[in-house]
Amino acid sequence: MARAGLTAERVTIAGAELADEVGLDRVSMSQVARRLGVKDASLYSHVRNLEDLRGRIALLAADEKTVLIAEATAGRAGKDALVAFADAWREYAHRHPGRYMATQTPIQIDPELAAKAPGPRRAVELTYGMLRGYGLAEPDLTDAVRLLRSTFHGFVALEAAGGFGHERSPQQSWTRALDALHALLEHWPPSREGASS
Q1: Which residues, other chains included, contact 117 with Cβ-Cβ below 8 Å and sequence gap of 6+?
Q2: Considering only CA atoms, which of 173, 75, 175, 93 is closest in space to residue 133?
Q3: What pLDDT digit, counting tens, does each position of 11-42 carry?
Q4: How do residues 140-188 score in pLDDT, each as one tens digit?
Q5: φ and ψ at 175, to 5 degrees?
């Protein structure tokens, strides 16, 4: 018999907590059921399957990460906004590694749930808004978004895997990487699209 009060939200939070502890790829429906003190079958009244649960974890994480970034960047512009944005991103990845991975993993998400979730849309708005402060417009905006995401995700993924063995601290390298990104964004190279070869 399902525990009273079991909801899709409770199942998602239990799955997210488990993902942070053991890794997103090691979460199973059985483990989530045990965590909640219910039988596996009880979960299927609230989530369709493991992929649905992973999609819900991704949306939860996107919402949480976006709120953290929005709070960090409020009232800031230029380099201050970039550093606050990046630090909030890294902080979330450190604090919630499993949830963070859900935001970086291709997952089939229920379109109805995705349409109701503000996190992914707000993340795009925050990122593009911060970059417009550097005077960028399309297609440079999209290219800059991809550069930032690649840099931030690459750094935190390598850091989480213990990939920085040099005696120089990762924090020192992170700070310098943000200095370099700021300089690049202020002096974004002109597009070569359409230039004659």
Answers
A1: 59, 62, 63
A2: 75
A3: 999 999 999 999 999 999 999 999 999 999 99
A4: 999 999 999 999 999 999 999 999 988 999 999 999 999 999 999 999 9
A5: -60, -45
What pLDDT is stored for residue 184 in this prediction?
97
What burial class does residue 110 get, using C-beta atoms within 10 Å of its C-beta: 0-12 exposed, 13-18 middle, 19+ buried? middle
Which amino acid is located at 112 in the chain?
E
Would you say 52 and 110 are in contact if contact means Cβ atoms under 8 Å apart? yes
Two tokens, residue 31: 């483990």
Look up the pTM and report it: 0.90
Contact 88, 73 (CB under 8 A): yes
State how far the alpha carbon of 89 is from the alpha carbons of 73, 186, 189, in Å.
11, 21, 26
| Cα 41 to Cα 172: distance, rounded to the nearest angstrom | 49
Half-sphere exposure of 142 (CA within 13 A, CB side): 3
> Which tens digits make up the pLDDT trace of 93-133?
999 999 999 999 888 888 888 888 888 889 999 999 999 99
What's at 140, amino acid-wise? D
